[in-house]
Amino acid sequence: MFSDVEMILHAGDIGSLRVIQELERIAPVIAVHGNMDRDLLWEKYPAMRVLRLQDQNVLLVHRVSDGLREITRRQATDSDEPIDVLIFGHTHRAECVKRDGVLHFNPGLGGMPRNYQTATAGIVTLEDGEVRGEILRLG
Fold it and tell me: Please, are residues 85 and 94 in contact by the beta-carbon 8 Å criterion?
């Protein structure tokens, strides 16, 4: 299912370094820490990353509120380029919607499902200046 991905972006609540190591068997991993990550994970991974991928600015954060603040800050100043894709986690609820020209993407909960949730992951495709997101059910 994920054998063709070029990179894995993890939006936090990693849990353990073993998760990253397993994901790296598929593709290189770029991650941020989440509120459930402690100690080594908190120190090793930042709270926010901005990536330039295929001429698109991708903001990777754990909490959507942090991402929205960064988008607003960038809109208020000419010093930074605008964000095209906001990838976040925290709620563990899958979401793929475009708002004000920015793709808001939460891949959902890839680990053990909670309550009513189904395990999901997502794929964001950046190609020919276009951005597409897809939520995939796991299991």
Answer: no
